[in-house]
């Protein structure tokens, strides 16, 4: 079972801070134009990634395996984010 730890609250804080970056940028430039859906999608991706890494840190004992699995999770996040943003693979979920 997943227990609420200080790391969980740190993950939430980091996700909120990262989501504040485009929100603040939208106030100063027209080049950043996120909709509510964009913020929800980004929040789900970032929170899901953070929680997945937290589970890896709790369950996996070997440091080498922790780093490897966390790296794979981050790579998957970046690939999915890129696909949603610009459609690097040309799938139906592409942003453009």
> Whole-number radius of gyration?
15 Å
Category by helix and strand content: mainly alpha
Major sheet characteristics: none
Helix count from the secondary structure assignment: 3
SS elements, strand count: 0
Mean pLDDT: 89
**Helix share, percent:** over 70%
Shape: flat
Strand content: under 5%
Note the run of SSEs as H and E. HHH
Q: Low-confidence parts, pLDDT < 50 over ≥5 residues?
A: none
Could you give the distance between the termini?
Answer: 39 Å
Give an account of the 3D structure.
The protein has 96 residues and is mainly α. The chain has three helices and no strands. The protein has helices at residues 6-28, 36-59, 63-86. The longest helix is centred in the middle third of the chain and has 24 residues, at 36-59.
What attributes does this structure have?
96 residues; mainly alpha; 3 helices
């Amino acid at each position: 079972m997943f227990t609420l730890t200080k790391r969980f609250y740190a993950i939430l804080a980091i996700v909120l801070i990262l989501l504040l970056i485009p929100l603040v940028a939208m106030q100063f430039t027209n080049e950043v134009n996120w909709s509510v859906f964009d913020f929800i999608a980004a929040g789900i991706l970032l929170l899901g990634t953070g929680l997945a890494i937290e589970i890896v840190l709790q369950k996996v004992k070997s440091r080498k395996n922790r780093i490897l699995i966390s790296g794979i999770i981050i790579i998957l996040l970046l690939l999915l984010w890129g696909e949603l943003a610009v459609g690097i693979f040309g799938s139906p979920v592409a942003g453009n």
